[in-house]
Amino acid sequence: MSEWLDSAIARAQGIDDWLAPKRAHALDLLAKTSWPTRKTEAWRYTPLRPVERSTAKAITDTVTLLPTAIADFSAIELVFANGRFDASQLESNLPEGLSVSLGRDLTEAEQSAALGVFSTIKPERHIFGLVNDALAEDVLVVSVAEGVQIDQPIRISSLLSEGAESHTRVQVNLAAGSSLTVIEDVQSHGDSLLTAFVEYQVAANAILEHYRFALQTGNNIAIGGSHFNLLDHAKMHSTIVGFGSDLSRLDTDIIHAGKYADAKLNAMYLLDGKELFDLHATVEHASPNGTTEENVRCIVADRARAVFNGRIHIHPDAQKTLAELNNRNLLLSDKAEINTKPELEIYADDVKCAHGATVAQIDKQALYYLQTRGVSRARAQVMLNFGFINELIDLMPNAALAEWVRPMIRERFLQMEVN
Amino acid sequence: MTEQIDKALAREYEAGFVSDVESETFAPGLDEDVIRRISAMKGEPEWMLEWRLSAFREWLEMEEPDWALVDYPKVDFQAISYYSAPKSMKDKPKSLDEVDPELLRTYEKLGIPLIEQQMLAGIAVDAVFDSVSVVTTFREKLEEAGVIFCPISEAIHKHPDLVKKYIGSVVPKKDNYYAALNCAVFTDGSFVYIPKGTRCPMELSTYFRINEQNTGQFERTLIIADEGSHVSYLEGCTAPQRDENQLHAAVVELVAMDNAEIKYSTVQNWYPGDENGKGGIYNFVTKRGICHTSAKISWTQVETGSSVTWKYPSCILKGDNSVGEFYSVALTRGRQQADTGTKMIHLGKNTKSTIITKGISAGRSNNSYRGLVRMNPGAHGARNFTQCDSLLIGDQCGAHTFPYVESRNPSAIIEHEATTSKVSDEQMFLCRQRGLDPEKAVSMIVNGFCKEVFKELPMEFAVEAGKLLEISLEGSVG
Amino acid sequence: MSNTKSLLTIQDLHASVEEKKIIKGLNLDVKAGEVHAIMGPNGAGKSTLGYVLSGRDGYSVESGSATLDGKDLLEMETEERARAGLFLAFQYPVEIPGVSNLEFLKASVDAQREARGEDAITSAEFLKEAKAACKQVNLPVSFLKRGVNEGFSGGEKKRNELMQMLLLKPKLCILDETDSGLDIDALQVVAEGVNSQRSADRSFIVVTHYQRLLDYIKPDFVHVLSDGKIVKSGDASLALELEAQGYAWLQKEPAEDELEG
Questions:
Q1: Are C236 and C214 a contacting pair, CB within 8 Å?
Q2: Shortest CB distance from B436 goes to which of C93, C97, C107?
Q3: Distance, in angstroms, between B427 CA and closest chain C CA?
Q4: Record: contact C87-B429, CB cut-off 8 A
Q5: Which of B147, B121, B130 is nearest to B204 (CA)?
Q6: Most buried in the list A37, B277, B408, B412, measured by CB within 10 Å?
Q7: What is the DSSP letter of A15?
Q8: What's the gap between Cα C106 and its chain centre?
C-alpha cells in the first residue's frame, strides 16, 4: 500500500456532492486494488516511485493561470487552475448548441444524464482514474446538441502552480450528427502532480477531432486518460503529442460500441534527459464494421525511457473490422530504453488486423548521405529525426496547431542528447 | 519438516499404500519424502538428491503463474502420483491387433512405418524384433562418433561431472513454478553430449532412445553441444499420444558452446481432450538454450495436441555473433488453449534472432503468441526479426498476439510484425473450382500458411507434420 | 465439329448477388466443340455468369436451369461442377501463399481423377505433364514450385490459369476476360494455348470486352450480353461490328432474335 494513496482516499472521504455514488464506488474499488508494482502488468515498466515521493499538495487559494497563446488560433477556453474551474476565462457567448457547465450546476435531469455516462467510458482498471473519480471536484460537462457543428475548437487546459496537486475531470457529449474539436492541454511549473481524465461520448454520425498535448517536462507528474465511446458511424481523429517528465502516463481507450465507427489515432513522443513517458492505448472493437488506424512514433534520447502498450481487442461480434497499429521507435542513446508491446486479441474471424513494431536507430545510410552533402552530423540527425515525426505532424487536421507544435518539436530535437 | 513427513505418512495409510519399492506406483502426494524415494529408486548420488530437495523448497514458496491466456481448473499437486514404474512386458499389448483401432487408423493416415507403429503403440519390445536391431545399429554408430545419447538417469551415474555442471545452468531451479517442480520430481529424459568439433552422424530422435517408455510427466532433457559441434534432435512424434497423466511439466536445457549448433525440433500431439476439453493434457514446458560465441540454436515446433499448452522455447544469446531461431506452428481446435511463443535475450554483440510463428485457431479454441525480445545494453549491432501470423477458422475461436519488445541498445534493430486473417473466400473458391473438396482446400491453404515453418523441419518430419495438420483440421470446416 | 449434342444448356436463368439481380433471363446453348464469345459492356453480368455457373458462394440462382452434359449444374457443389468438367479461368486469379503450383495442381487433377474412378496420377508422370504444360504457355518450369499465383505478374497469372486448364482437360472452359491486362505477345500465347485445346468434345465460352482476342480465337458464335440478358447473337462478324460501333446501339434495341447456338 502507498501512503500517497491512503492520503488520497482519506481526502476523498470528505467530499459529498452529486457524484457521491460514483465516488463511493471508486473508493470501494480502490480499497480492493493493490498499489502497482513491477509485477503489475499495466505498470511493468513504469515505477510509481515519483508519486510515492511527491511533495505536491492541493492548493486552495484562488490563482489566475493563463493558457498558452497559439498564433492564428482561438479557442473556447476551459481553464482549470490547480484543479479549480476558472469560469471567468470562459467566454459568455457560447455558440448555439454548445453548453459548458460544472456538474454541480446542472439541473437534476441533466445531472442524472451526466451520471449515466460518468466513468462508464473510462475503464475501471485505471487506478489513477479511480483516484480521479474520487477526488476531482470541479467536474465539467460539455455537450453539443444534435446535428450542431461547432467550428471553434474547445481547449481544456489543466494548469498547475509549482508544487500543486490537482485532479481535473471533463465529460464531453457529442449528440448524434454533431461535430466538435477538443484540445486537451497541460502546463505545470515543477513538483506538481496531476490526474486529468476526459470521457467522450460520440453519438451516431458525430465527428470528434481531438488533440492531447502532454508537453510538461522536468519534475512533474502527469497521469491521465482520454476515453472515447463511438456509436454507429461515429468518427474520431486523435493526435497525441508528448514530451516526458518524471512520470507521464497516458491511457487512451477507444470503444467501438456502434457499428461502422472510424477511429484514427496518431501519437508521437520525444523524450530526453531522464524522462519517462508511458502510453497505453486500447481499442475495443465491440461492434461490426469498425475501422481503426493507429500510428505511434517515439524518439528516445539520453537516459529517457519510453513505454508503449497498444492493445487491439476484437470482440466476437465485431466482424468485418479493419484494425491496424504501426509503432516505430528510434533509440538515440545507449542509456535510453524502449519497451513496447503491441497486442492483438481477436475473437472474430472475418477481420483484418495487423500490427507492426520496430525499434532502430537513425538510418545510417541516410545520415551518411546527408553528411556527404556537407550537412553536419548533428544537424543531419535532427533533420532525419524530424522527418520521422514530421510525417505525423502533417496529418494533424488543424494547421494552426501543427504550426504551433512543429517548432517546439524542432527545438526539442536540437537540445536532445545524442550519441 | 518432520511435520510434513508425518502428514505424508498419514496420507499413505489412507490411500492404502503398500510399499514395494521395486515395482509399485507411489500413492498420490508430494513432500520431501516422496522426492527422497524417487531419488532412491533411481539410486541417485547425494548431490542429485540435495539438488532436488532445494528445488522442492523453492517450489513451496512459489505461486502458479496466472498471466497466460489459459483457463483451467487448478491443479491439485497433492493428487498426483509422482512415480510410476514402467509397465512390465506382460502388461503390454503383444501385437497391433490388441491396439485401439482408432489409433491405428491415424498411424495409417500419417504413413508411419509398421515398426514405428509398433513402438508407438507400446508393443512389448521382444515383439518388435526388427526395431531393436535398428536401435542397436544406431547406438553403435553414435558411440563411434563419441556422442553420448542416453537416459538422463543413466547420465547421472555415468557422466556425473557433465550433468552436475550443466543441469539447471540454463533453466535455474527457481526459474518458474513448473520448472522448479520438474527439478524436484523429474523421473527421466534424454541426455546428449556432442564432443568438440563433432557433427552428430544422424538425427537424434526420442523414438530411438530405449528405456524411455514411460518417462512420465516430468521429463528432463539436457543437450550439450561442445565447441564446433552440430546436432539435430527430434522430440515427440506426429502420432497421437495417449497418456493417463494429465499434467506434464518438462524441462529442456540446451547448451551450445562456441561455434556449436543445435537444432531442436518438436512435434507435440498429446491428447487434446474431447470436444468439451475434458481429459486433455496440460503441457507446461520450460525450454531454453544458451548460445556461446557464434553458436546457434534453432527451435522448431509443431504443436497440435494438449488441452492447455504453456510453452516458450527460448534462447539466451550470450556470446557475440550467436544466433537464435524460433519457428512455430500451433494449431488449436475444440476447446484447446495454447499460450506459446519464445524469448530472445540478446546479450552479446551482433547477435541475431528470428521468430516466425503461425497460429491456427479453429472450433472454440484460443491460440496466443506470447514473446519477448530483449536487447540488453551490450547487444551492439544485434538484430531481431519477428513475424507472427494468425489464421482463424470459424467465428467461435480466438487468436492473440502479445509481444514484449524491450530495447536498451541504440544500435540494435528490432522488427516485429503480426497479422490476422482467415482463409479467404476467394482462395476457397479457386480451390473448389479446380475440383478440391472444402476440407482438402482448407488443409492445403493452411499447410501453405505454415510452409515457412515446415521447411525448417527435418524432411520426413515435415511431411508428417503436413499430414498431421490435415488430420487435425478434419471436421473443422463448417 | 459436332452439331448434335448440347454440352451446356442454360434456360431462362435469373441470378442475383447480394439481393441485386444481375442475370435476368439468360438463354444459351453450347454444343460440344463449339466456341462461344460473350461480349458486352461493363456491368452487363459477364463475370457473374461464370461465377453462377461454377457455383460461387454469394451468387444465388433465383430461377431457370443450367445443365452440363445433361446433368443439373445448379444442384452441384462447386467442386462437383469442376469434376463434371467445368473450368473457369479467372479474370483476377487469387494468390495462395505457400501452396506450390505443383502441389495444388496435382491435388486438383487427383480429385478429378478420383471422381471419375481413376487412380491418382504418379508424381513422375504428373511432373512430366506439368513441365510440358509450362512450356506450352511459356512459363518457366520454376513456376511449378512457386506459391499459387504468389507474386506473379498479371500476364503470368493468366498463363498460369491456362496451364491449369491444359492439365485438367475440362469439357467446358469459361475464360473470364482472359485478355485483360495482356500485351499482344502474351495474348498470342494464351490464344495459341486455347486453340491447341479446341476439339470435337471440348467447348469454350470466351468472355471478353474487346474484339481483339477474337482475332486469335475464332468463335463460332458471338453473343452480346446486356443488362443480364443476351440481346443479340451472331457469328464472328458480330464482334467486328461491335468493335466498330460500340455497345450503345444494342442497349436501346430490344432483343428479338436470340439465336440458339
A1: yes
A2: C107
A3: 6
A4: no
A5: B147
A6: B412
A7: -
A8: 21
Residue C105 domain-assigned (yes or no): no
- What pLDDT shows up at residue B5? 39
**Residue B340 domain-assigned (yes or no):** yes
Q: With respect to residue C189, please indicate whether it lies within any of the assigned structural domains.
A: yes
Share of chain B above pLDDT 90, in %: 53
DSSP secondary structure code for residue A385 in this structure: H
In a domain, B386, yes or no: yes
Q: Do B395 and A348 touch (CB under 8 A)?
A: yes
Question: Total domain count for chain C?
Answer: 1
Across-strand partners of B270? B241
CA distance B437 to chain C (A): 6
Tens digit of each residue's pLDDT (9 = 90 or more) over A287-300: 999 999 999 999 99
What b/e sequence results for A306-331 when a residue is b if at least 16 CB atoms lie within 10 Å of its CB, and e otherwise? Answer: bbbbbbbbbbeebbebebbbbbbbbb
**Does C258 have pLDDT greater than 70?**
no
Domain CATH number, residue C244:
3.40.50.300
Question: Tell me: the pLDDT tens digits for C191-235?
Answer: 888 899 899 889 999 998 888 888 899 999 999 998 899 988 998
What ipTM was estimated for this complex? Answer: 0.89
Write the residue in A344, A348, A349 that is nearest to B418 by C-beta. A344
B449: in domain: no
In this complex, is the C-beta atom of B350 within 8 Å of any C-beta atom belonging to chain A? no
User: Within a 13 Å sphere around the CA of A380, how many CA atoms are in the beta-carbon half?
Assistant: 16
Do B111 and B199 lie in one domain? The reply is yes
- Domain range for C12 is 6-92+170-252
Domain boundaries, position B292: 97-423
**pLDDT (mean) for B4-15:** 37
Using a cut of 0.90, tell me whether the model's pTM lies above it: no
| Residue B36 shares a structural domain with residue B114 | no
- Over residues C112-164, the pLDDT tens digits come to 888 888 888 888 999 999 999 999 888 999 999 898 899 998 889 999 999 99
Asked whether residue B314 falls in the same domain as residue B193, the answer is: yes
B341: amino acid identity, one letter: G
For the record, the C-alpha cell of B89 comes out as 512386458
